[in-house]
Amino acid sequence: MSRHPTVMAALVAVLGAGIAAASVLGPLVLDVIRYRTSETTLNQIMGGDLAGLVVVAPTALLAAVLLFRGHPVGPVLALAPALWAVYMYAQLIVGQEYLQLPGNNERFFPLLLGLFIGGEAVTVLAWRAVAAHRLPPIPWRLERSAGVVLLILAVFLTVGLHLPSLLDALAEQPTAVEYTSSPTAFWVVKLMDLGIIVPAAITIGVGLLCREEWARKAAYAIFGGYTLLSAAVTGMAIVMYANADPDASLVNVAAFGSFTLAAAWLTARLHRPLLTTSAAPAGARQSKQAGAADKERTSWTSKT
């Protein structure tokens, strides 16, 4: 646990409140933030806001409560909404058709930037607070299942989701509405998914199959984050289908819905041992930290 759990808890609580506020201010509810993008991408933004309001913000607030109580699952759970915020708000800031389509989202740049920075800060603090050697061991069958799911995700994102639209975009006359209506958002998503999400899934998936210790720690972060991201993409698919978007399909709704359930199940299985661990009293934690520090100093003195 971090030496300053209260500070981290406050940051996570503010992040959760900010995510909820941005979701309400967006096109899903109040339409105060008007993004400079096409109707297709606007449907996707509304789906992301739906997930942010219903799933992500409550997860962040739950993590904040657990951090305040000193529960060991607090920093692990906080990684999920933090990674979601970094991914989503980077796209919302960069992926707009500025100077070409009407809107006012640039006026809310401080809010979106603050949420992006907040996600970064919580990610770093939570990652440092999670000690890999203190995490409960993952059963081999669960570890293998998690690794396989990550590799399947990488293949689906690359071949099933992005390759068809990428080939269309590289043609002499692209026809996909997703690209022709919002080319900036199109390439930002391609960059982040194929440049970050897919390589991370492959790396950690292979690490889990090889039973690497570093991969077990990373699995907590990636499955929590991917569960929330897949919930957002599922929300996008649902909103697009409900609004008769030309790029919508029931196949995407079913595919992303299925992966969200699978990721949520694996995330719950990973977190369950941590949930059954009681929070240590503050005095006991401080004594344990002091003892460890004394031991480290003694060891260093003996070596010198």
Would you summarize the structure shown here?
The protein has 304 residues and is mainly α.
Question: Care to describe what's here?
Answer:
- This protein is mainly alpha-helical.
- The chain has one domain.
- Helices cover 77% and strands 0% of the residues.
- It has helices at residues 5-25, 39-68, 73-94, 109-129, 140-169, 177-181, 183-209, 213-242, 250-275, 282-303.
- Helix 7 packs antiparallel against helix 8 and helix 8 runs antiparallel to helix 9 (250-275).
- The relative contact order is 0.13.
- Our count of helices gives 10
Compute the number of structural domains.
1
Largest sheet: none
Question: Helix-strand pattern, N to C?
Answer: HHHHHHHHHH
Terminal CA distance: 30 Å
Ranges with pLDDT <50 over ≥5 residues? 280-304
What global shape is seen? globular
What would you call the quaternary organization? single chain
Mean pLDDT: 88
The value of Rg in angstroms is 21 Å
Helix content: over 70%
Q: What structural category arises from helix and sheet content?
A: mainly alpha
Number of strands: 0
The percentage of residues in β strands lies in under 5%
